[in-house]
Write a structure and sequence with these properties.
The strands form 2 sheets. This protein has a 5-stranded mixed sheet, sandwiched between helices. It contains 12 helices and 10 strands. A hairpin with a 2-residue loop joins strand 2 and strand 3. By secondary structure, it is of the alpha/beta class. Helices cover 42% and strands 19% of the residues. Bound molecules: 5'-O-[(R)-(carboxyoxy)(hydroxy)phosphoryl]adenosine (KG4) and zinc ion. The site of zinc ion has 6 residues, from helix 4.
Length: 343
């Protein structure tokens, strides 16, 4: 079966076409059109601008993604689309585009949860290779969640949210810290690139590891960002602007986030007898985080960097595992900005 998947929940316009044969996934096309330049001057994603950019980009992205299919003389069997969580106007743009396409080609639509897709992108290989219970750590621009997965995700997953952030997400923290330090948007990759340049020190101060020892699986990253802000404001201008200070601060904030994530993941995996750790979301593109999780956990799945950040291959894979939700009652497919993963 061939699934065409559409992802427009935030600032990436993405379409992928994935063929599934004998439970094996073959990516026929994977196009991601980033809006970074459009949002750069606002220092973050501006929803109505993102919607306009999606509307502008979708037809061209579709055309490019269809090329390999046309060359191979193959047809699409179903359209998968992200229905939530995400920015309402952006989600609706993708959903309406999916409906138009499905109607034109007389195909069913599979509604997909973006967070579940960040998890299921790791299930590109036969499920029998994985051991359960598994636990996912989702770290993206909008979410930080620890999710227990009791059984293989055939027919949709069986999930339980063990904990989540009480304020800012991990990616959001990087984005805000980058803004404080005057480094641009999106912050995650910039903070990571600066951190590599640090030679050792701790930028005049060790940052806190918020909630690292609390007796739950929740997170809080807003205080970490505030600690960076105060530290920054208390430095003489000459120091603040120095390459040494910036790189050391980036290294310290990155390590603070990683320390909290590893500690909470370790605690939850022990309590629930977890056999496989699954990482997902844009922050898992972070090289240092990948390295330290691999070192700490024997059985950890991390998507290739290209599939860590938002893309539509993950939507196609999640669509395949949710095929029972495919419908031609297009009126039932609605954007759900606050959609939560559930049993
Ligand atoms: O999953 P994603 O692409 O979009 C959402 O669903 O939010 O995640 C985007 C987030 C942004 O906050 C971005 O700064 C962060 O992922 N990110 C990174 C890296 N690449 C992207 N954070 C740390 N290190 C990176 N290399
Ligand atoms: Zn995402």
């Amino acid at each position: 079966m061939i699934i065409l998947a559409i992802e427009t929940s935030c600032d990436d316009t993405a379409i992928a076409i994935v063929e599934v044969k004998n439970k094996k996934f073959k990516v026929l096309s994977n196009i991601v059109s980033s809006q970074i330049e459009a949002h750069q001057e606002y220092g973050g994603v501006f929803p109505s601008l993102a919607k306009r950019e999606h509307e502008k980009n979708l037809p061209a992205v579709l055309k490019r993604s269809l090329d390999p299919l046309i060359r191979a003389n193959k047809l699409v069997d179903a359209v998968a689309v992200t229905v939530g969580p995400g920015l309402d106007p952006c989600l609706w743009t993708g959903v309406n585009f999916a409906k138009d396409l499905a109607q034109k080609w007389n195909l069913p639509i599979i509604p997909v949860n973006h967070i579940e897709a960040h998890i299921l992108v790791n299930f590109q290989f036969p499920i029998s290779n994985f051991q359960f219970p598994a636990m996912a750590l989702i770290v993206s621009g909008g979410h930080t969640q620890l999710i227990l997965i009791k059984d293989p995700p055939a027919g949709g997953g069986k999930y339980k949210i063990l904990g989540e952030t009480r304020d800012d997400a991990a990616g959001e923290c990087f984005d805000k810290v980058a803004r404080i330090l005057g480094l641009g948007y999106p912050g995650g990759p910039i903070v990571a690139a600066e951190a590599v340049k640090a030679c050792g020190g701790r930028a005049s101060a060790a940052l806190p590891r918020p909630m690292i020892n609390t007796n739950d699986y929740d997170f809080s990253f807003s205080g970490l960002k505030t600690a960076v802000l105060y530290n920054f404001k208390n430095q003489p201008v000459k120091i603040r602007k120095s390459k040494k200070y910036i790189s050391e601060m980036c290294k310290e904030v990155q390590q603070a986030v990683i320390d909290v994530l590893i500690k909470k993941t370790t605690k939850a995996s022990r309590e629930y007898g977890v056999k496989t750790i699954i990482l997902g979301g844009g922050v898992t593109a972070n090289t240092e985080l990948r390295k330290q999780f691999k070192k700490r956990f024997k059985n950890v799945l991390i998507p290739p960097k290209k599939l860590s950040t938002d893309n539509a291959v993950m939507i196609a894979i999640a669509g395949y595992y949710n095929i029972d939700k495919a419908t031609k009652k297009y009126g039932n497919i609605k954007a759900k900005p606050n959609l939560r993963i559930r049993n």
